[in-house]
Amino acid sequence: MDCLFCEIIKGNIPSAKVYEDERCYAFRDINPQAPTHVLVVPKIHIASMDEVNGENSAYVSAIFEAIPKIAAAEGLTNGYRVISNCGEDGCQSVKHLHFHILGGRKLPENMG
Ligand code: DGP
Fold first, then answer.
1. Average pLDDT, whole number, for the chain?
2. CB under 6 Å to ligand 1: residues?
């Protein structure tokens, strides 16, 4: 298997979809850390934040346009957090760029 999230995007691995458009796909995290925990990924393989550049940033832009729509659909009217872990020190476990949307309760102030 090349990339877990590429396989999820292709539908080869099942996921609980919450949003999709031409450039991004959003689904529920398998190990939720908050009442709402959604992952948003680009539909092309970008390994991490370190790989974002002028050639692929339209996919990142699409993700950031999708996030408020997803948050509204999830009922996150009182706020939420968006996180992208990058590399070893960022504890990135899946090497396909993804943004966590966390909400549904008051989140801890400490992020690191
Ligand atoms: P990170 O640690 O930032 O790389 O986050 C990867 C997230 O991906 C982690 O919160 C768990 C989630 N995850 C891993 N495998 C799967 C899977 O097969 N399905 C779903 N829905 N989420 C997964």
1. 97
2. 4, 15, 27-31, 39, 85, 91-94
Distance 66 CA to ligand 1 centre (A): 19
DSSP labels for the chain? ---HHHHHHHTSS---EEEE-SSEEEEE-SS-SSSEEEEEEESS---SGGG--TTTHHHHHHHHHHHHHHHHHTT-TT-EEEE---TTTTT--SSS--EEEEESSPPPS---
Two tokens, residue 22: 């031409």
| Per-residue model confidence as pLDDT tens digits over 74-88 | 999 999 999 999 999
C-alpha separations of 6 from 2, 64, 98 in Å: 8, 19, 11
